[in-house]
Amino acid sequence: MSSASKSSKLRIGKLVVIGVGLIGGSFSLALKKARVVRRVVGVGRTKKNLDTARRLGVIDEASRDAASAVRDADLVLIGTPVGQMPEVMAEIAAELGEATVVTDGGSTKQNVIAHARRFLGAHFERFVPSHPIAGTENSGAASAFAELYRDRNVIMVPQIETKASAVRLVRAAWEACGARIVRLDARQHDEMFAAVSHLPHVVAFALVSMLAKRRDAQTLLGYSGGGLRDTVRIAGSSPEMWRDICMANREALLELLDSYSDELELARGAIESADGEALIEMFRRARTARSRWLLKKA
């Protein structure tokens, strides 16, 4: 059965999006565009962002109270930074309906699952951990757009207790957004994304931070070209969100940072000793790996 056929059967009466930013807002817009959701209630901390979300049609109603918002909801997406999820889960648990399904968009999964087990109680069986592999460096409701998930992967990490009906609903919702579904183990997920997402963000933030500390930073950055812009684009992402991700996945990330530091030391040693052959071997190896990666993505 095609994704279009599956989504045509999906009907969400009330969707609650907690954290109306790029991830949550785009989820809402995509489901609205697919005409599978009747009403979207957005929950957030700031009136300004919620007002923007309503003005742009990202949500239909706004609330600052997550507990009251989730009453009678069919589906709840927690789209906050992962560091805020325990508080959100504790706040909404008592008000969740017996059939309400909860999912998330967090970039780490082991910690989010542990929090859900602790705070959602009996509702844990209707919690479906998810991670959409899509995003930009922008944040807030104004950055949301309906096509964000089109032809992108969404990782789903259902647990042994997770009800099959909850998995079907969340899968159908992401597919209605145009996404492809991949299922992974939580530990495997966190180790993989520490390498391909979390480490690159730390590197980008660290590089910009280093350059910004120079006395000639303004002049230096004024002469920068596409190479620097391409390398540090993701340093424009939410600092709060990436702080939470680093703290949540610190063990896997620390191991990778050690490996990356070792690689930098090899490069430094080659430059210091004027070993051009070692440099060209490193650069060729990296270029070949990049080419193979891009070929697979094509």
Describe the 3D structure.
- The chain is an alpha/beta fold.
- The protein folds into two domains: 3-184, NAD(P)-binding Rossmann-like Domain (Rossmann fold, 3-Layer(aba) Sandwich), CATH 3.40.50; 188-297, Orthogonal Bundle (6-phosphogluconate dehydrogenase C-terminal fold).
- 53% of the residues lie in helices and 13% in strands.
- The chain has a six-stranded parallel beta sheet.
- Helix 7 (164-176) links the parallel strand 8 and strand 9 (180-183).
- Helix 5 (85-92) runs parallel beside helix 6 (110-119) and helix 8 packs across helix 12 (250-272).
- The radius of gyration is 21 Å and the shape is elongated.
- It starts with a helix and ends with a helix.
- The model has no long low-confidence stretch (mean pLDDT 93).
